[in-house]
Design brief:
Strand content: 15-25%
Radius of gyration: 25 Å
Shape: globular
Helix content: 25-40%
């Protein structure tokens, strides 16, 4: 069976079972419109949301010995056989503990679905070192970096949070056995990126409890992590910039400083905190006015973990940070496809969606999202919870304003649109997908789109050239290949400049210029190198088809131009081919969009045989476009 069949089957199953779970969305009971005028969410509601997710997870638990294992969905996630079930179980336990730990810190007697959480997690910890248990984890031995290390890193964080509830009551022999086993992983090899934190946290926790650890290795890993900082609040999680810079580097660095670093390594802690403070200049602006996050980068099944670092700054606009975090949380918890029929979040972005997944994830991996609940460690009197929600930066924007924030360190551009409330991110992608051992997702739609918008999650490429917010080129094999080898060359006067070449043929090159406008962008691109005749396609964003068919309209403009528009009852897209294009078509897709089964985009096609100038106006808005609004945009060029 081919990939398209599996994708269609997965979506069909998701559509059927999401109907079963439809209506199982989180409800904000008695919203507080005074403290939180935009979302109604207070600390109490966040606790209720936390328990809502825990209830789904613990609906699978009948006794203290039951593993936290959830059945696989889709065709990407592990385990694909029985060989990695134990690993998936460890993920389920350690990651749901992110949900439980701040609640247990406050109430050690908390019970969910008849299971006392403190008793359950203590029992699960003891089973990790019981050779007769299915949850047993052996010492690392000669193993290299592995998923167990990741989960022990998570466990180290949770033990810092509620160790008095989970760690201290354990028998000393059990604590010693856990130390010996976990330290065998922490005091060992890792992957040279955010994974180093998974060594650092267990070693730090054990050192805080008086155990002997490899101090020199701990310090070495911390310094290497800090060496990944590129300025402007961003770390490079080799080889990409993505949310790992925030829900990993920035969050972990700040928590490590608070839990351990300030006392034991104040100089290193101060560096993490300095880098963390710089995050607030740019990162909050990556979220839309409504707090929604863009679908960007790997591990997007972690969703609202993107909001996890926002609460921890000093002297920041706490009301805006909570408004963002609550909006981001509700983006998913109030989507009927988020929770599957079995009470566990789907592997996907909204519902089940294989193109957004990676093979290193299992069903329980989704609970990495629970890091967003760690601010529940902060008391209700903390300004993050007590300050009134506000719109921060957005409140100062005027109608028709578009604001660009250029970050020279990571070479990223963040754009905020006052008219639509959308935030847009442009980040580099330059990954060799053909090298031996390549992780192909690093050059996929998750990174190679021209822009990522909070209103329009990316659509997967189709085998027939269907594309959204990217260029695809017909390569020598007759396949539609996306451009992915980008270099950002600079930003000036509201325009981002990039070059790009085709992975399968370095002789095909382009220069790209994105100029942002109040309702979209003007693309002034050029094919600068083309050794053999070929065809390329450019796609606009895509719109999900909701209750009614998407409306298509072609509008004649001045100077012989035409605008091709689509409208889904909520948003409109318009594409105006100005120079260099041949055919423009409306493209309806099935099984390629993360929100709905059917979606539509607009594609422009050009046949090229040498240097070719390509100019394209691409607009978006809430409501429908008409001739007047499009011609107004053209006058702004």
């Amino acid at each position: 069976m081919n990939k398209a069949f599996f994708l269609t089957l997965s979506l069909a199953i998701a559509t059927t079972l999401s109907a079963i779970g439809a209506g199982n969305v989180f409800k904000v009971d008695n919203p507080d419109s005074k403290l939180s005028p935009y979302t109604g969410m207070t600390r109490r509601h966040w606790i209720e949301a936390d328990k809502y997710l825990l209830e789904g997870a613990f609906s699978h638990i009948r006794s203290l010995d039951d593993p936290m294992y959830f059945e696989r969905l889709g065709n990407v996630c592990y385990p694909k056989d029985n060989s990695r079930v134990r690993g998936a179980t460890l993920e389920g336990m350690c990651r749901t503990l992110f949900l439980a730990s701040p609640l247990l810190r406050e109430d050690s007697t908390l019970t969910i679905n008849g299971i006392r959480l403190a008793d359950y997690y203590r029992r699960q910890l003891s089973l990790l070192v019981d050779p007769d248990s299915k949850q047993y984890v052996a010492h690392r031995g000669n193993r290299g970096p592995c998923q167990d290390l990741v989960e022990f890193g998570a466990l180290g964080i949770s033990l810092f949070i509620c160790g008095n509830v989970l760690w201290e009551p354990l028998p000393k022999a059990t604590r010693d056995s856990l130390y010996s086993m976990i330290e065998s992983y922490a005091d060992g090899p890792t992957i040279p990126q955010n994974w180093r934190f998974f060594n650092v946290f267990p070693m730090s926790f054990f050192k805080s409890k008086g155990y002997e650890v490899n101090d020199s290795l701990l310090v070495k890993y911390v310094r290497l992590l800090q060496g990944d900082y590129r300025g402007d609040g961003w770390y490079l999680d080799h080889p990409n910039y993505d949310f790992y810079s925030m829900w990993a580097y920035q969050l972990y660095g700040e928590l490590w400083a608070r839990f351990f670093g300030r006392e034991h390594y104040p100089e290193l802690a101060a560096q993490f905190e300095k880098n963390f403070a710089e995050m607030y200049r740019s990162y909050p602006r990556m979220f839309g006015r409504d707090g929604h996050m863009p679908m960007w980068g790997r591990s997007n099944m972690y969703r609202f973990a993107a909001a996890a670092p926002l609460a921890w700054g000093e002297g920041i606009n706490y009301g805006w940070m909570r408004r963002i975090a609550s909006g981001c949380l509700l983006q998913f918890l109030q989507n009927p496809d988020f929770i599957y029929a079995d009470g566990v979040p789907t592997p996907g972005f909204y519902g089940l969606f294989d193109p957004v997944l990676q093979g290193y994830s299992c069903r329980g991996s989704v609970y990495w999202c629970a890091k967003a609940f760690l601010p529940l460690m902060l008391p209700e009197s903390h300004p993050y919870w007590s300050d009134t929600e506000n719109e921060g930066f957005w409140a100062g924007m005027k109608a028709g304003e578009v604001d660009n924030l250029w970050l020279p360190g990571p070479k990223m551009l963040i754009t905020n649109y006052a008219n639509s409330g959308a935030a847009e991110t442009r980040a580099f992608c330059d990954y060799d997908t053909e090298r031996r051992g390549a992780e192909k997702f690093r050059g996929s739609e998750q990174y190679n789109r021209l822009a990522y918008n909070t209103l329009f999650p990316w659509m997967a490429d189709g085998k027939n050239g269907e594309v959204a917010m990217a260029y695809v080129v017909k390569n020598a094999k007759g396949q539609w290949e996306p451009m992915r080898r980008y270099t950002t060359t600079g930003y000036a006067d509201g325009t981002l400049h990039r070059t790009v070449w085709l992975q399968s043929d370095k002789r095909f090159t382009m220069s790209l210029a994105d100029k942002t406008l109040p309702d979209g962008m003007m693309r002034s691109d050029s094919v600068t190198g083309c050794a053999t005749p070929t065809t390329l396609r450019l796609g606009h964003y895509s719109l999900p088809e909701r209750d009614t068919p998407i409306k298509e309209a072609t509008i004649s403009l001045k100077n012989g131009l035409k605008a091709y528009t689509i409208y889904n009852g909520r948003h409109s897209l318009a594409l105006v081919p100005i120079k260099g294009w041949g055919k423009v078509e409306y493209v309806r897709t099935e099984g390629l969009h993360p929100e709905t089964r059917f979606a539509e985009t607009i594609n422009a096609t050009a046949d090229v045989n040498g240097p070719t100038e390509l100019k394209t106006l691409m607009l978006f808005k809430e409501g429908q476009f008409d001739r007047k609004s499009i011609e107004k945009a053209i006058k702004q060029l």
